[in-house]
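SEQUENCE WITH STRUCTURE:
===
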Amino acid sequence: MQRLRFPRLPPHVAPEPTPPVPREVPALLLGRREFLKGLGAVLAALASPFTRLRQVYAAARGRFFTAHEFATLEALCDRILPADGDPGARELGAATYIEALLTAFDQPVPLIFAGGPFSNRNPFPDNATGTPSNKRPRDAFRHFIRLTRWQRLRWRAEIFGSDHVAGAAFNDVAAGGPLPGLRQMYREGLRAVDGAARTMTGAPYAGLSSDQQDAILAALDRSVFKPDARRGMSFVDVLIQHTLEGCFSLPEYGGNRDGRGWALLGLEGDDQPLGYSIFSRATDGYDERPDHPMSTPNPDELAGPRALSPDGERIQQSIMTLATALSKVFGE
C-alpha cells in the first residue's frame, strides 16, 4: 500500500519586534466657551426626541397627552370655566373629556356616540304606588354605538386630519384645503401656549398665576391662533367648545364628574325612566315627585330662588343690558 506524502512546511519564524511608534496626543479642540455652546446644541437636538419619547410612553398607557401636556390642558380649561365657589373645568374633568375624544378610535367601538335609552342614574317608576321603585336599568350609555362607514370616515378625518385618513381627502380641494386633525391642533396649541409662557415668564404655563395665564392666552388668541379654513375656528374656539362639552355633557364621555356640571346649572341631567310625574294605578292619575314637584317650587327653593354665582350675575346683567339696548333700537 502506497503512503501519501505531504510537503513539509518550513518552521515558523517569529518576526522581529517592531519598535513602538509614539502616538501624537491631539490638541484640545474646544475651549470652555465652545464646549458649553456645543452642549447647548446637543441638548436642544435631544429635546425633540425626548418629547416624542414621552408621547410614545403616553400612548402605551392608553393616553394621548404627556403628563406635562395634560397639566397645561387642565390649566387652559380652568381659564375657560374657572372655579369660583363652584367647581371649575379642571375639577369637572374637561381635560379628561378632551383626551377621551382624541383617543376615541383606540377602542374597538369608537367612543363617539353613547348608547341608550337609559343610564342607571334613576330607577324605574313603581306604577302601582306612583313612587320610585328599587329597580334600576343598566347603564346603556356606557355601551357606545357602532359607527356607519361614513360616520367612521368623517370622525377619523376630524380627529386625525383628512390628509392622514385614506379616502377622507376627496373634498379637500373644493373645501379650501385639508381638514386639520384635532390631535394636531391640540398638540401644536399646547406647545405654543407653554412655549410662550416659558419665553415670557421663564415658567411653564401650568405653574403661572391665573392673571398671567389669562394674559398669555389672550395674547396668543390675538396674534397666533387664527381660524383654520375648514372649521372657521381657532385653537381657542375649539378649546372653549370642548371645555363646555366636557363640563356639561353626559359623564359617560369622560367629563362632568358625578354630574356636578349639571348641578352647577341647576339641571337634573337625564331623568328617565323615572321622570317627574309618575302614573299611579292606585289613584288612576299622575303623582308629582315630592323632591321635584312640577306645580310648586323645588323644596330647596321654597324660601326663594338660589342666588346666582358671580359669573351668573355678570351674564344676567349682560343680557339685561343687551335687551335694553335692543328695545331702544327697535322699540318695545
